Amino acid sequence: MRMQFWKTAIEEIYRDDAPLQPVSTELWKAVRQHHLTKRWLLRIIKEREKDMEDRAYRNLQELEAYSENTQSSMIYLLLECLGVKNVHADHAASHVGKAHGIVTCLRAVPYHSSRRRVYLPMDVCMLHGASQEDFIRGSREQNVRDVIYDIASQAHVHLEHARSFSKNVPASAAPAFLQTVVLEDYLQKVRRADFDVFHPSLRNRNPFLAVQLYLRSWKKTY
User: Fold this and answer.
1) What is the pTM of this model?
2) Which of 75, 81, 120 lies closest to 98, judged by CA?
3) Position 90 pLDDT exceeds 80
4) Which residues are within 8 A (CB) of 10 and not within 5 positions of it... i.e. 6 or more apart?
């Protein structure tokens, strides 16, 4: 019902029917002001519907596809809000979105495990002989760390790919990529914890994160 509400709302917005719901109204204003692409909004909703299946990703590629369709689509919309039309920025957005989706999946492991849910890619878990029960028990054995290492490494690869386009990405696109500061912060913390996703240090907030965000914003880099 919730997803159908948003599908209907978006159809109404693109017919230029001003919705009555407050959030929908703001989205309608944004669409009119920035000429946002309908495809990105619908893609987010369609992909979010898969959350209702409540199952683990079959493989890392499926997690990347989910991240592309949700997180990357959001960044494409941010670029449109910023008035950026640049193929290199689009490529960077694709990789940053994938990194964001992967990191989000990793960060949520302790929370989901405490509720007896595991969504990590099954192919990576099987490769290292790590069962869902290992994560539910909060295991800190090497095979569990190896799973986290492989997945975190893929997020790092996407960040590096995104940065490979930075010389050709206009400075005006930088605000859309500020999330890389947070993603990099988590990946560094999990590396220092030797890829123990249940390590208490991962729950600590970085007191310098706001400063890092400000500096990255000021430098207009990602």
Assistant:
1) 0.94
2) 75
3) yes
4) 27, 38, 41, 42, 45
